[in-house]
Specification:
Strand content: under 5%
Low-confidence stretches: none
Helix content: over 70%
Largest sheet: none
Mean pLDDT: 75
Number of strands: 0
Shape: elongated
Length: 124
Amino acid sequence: MYCNFNFNLNRRQILVVSSLMFLGMIAAAQVHAGTGGDEFKDLYDQLMGWVQGTLGKVVAVSMILVGIIAGVARQSIMAFAVGIAAGLGLYYAPTVIDKTLSAAVSLEADREALAQALMNFAGM
């Protein structure tokens, strides 16, 4: 079945509709990107201390040693590589996650400025 939609929109209407769509996307992104959660800060700090402190280093080195032993037992370098990757992943994952989420939160001001500029451009 063939359907022919014929929209006759001028430039201003297209700009207003696209701006509203863009603002809708921004509003949806703001729903998911909250900066709250202070009640979990103590738990987060404790887990970060464990993972990047002495406990995390001991577990990371243990993973590497288990990988070496498994690599020798299986006569394969892959077990050694998995042990190294798991140890490094355990140690650096919290830093990567923290930097990624803090970068996402810092974009909020840029989004609001862009939305205001679009509204000013559309003459609203």
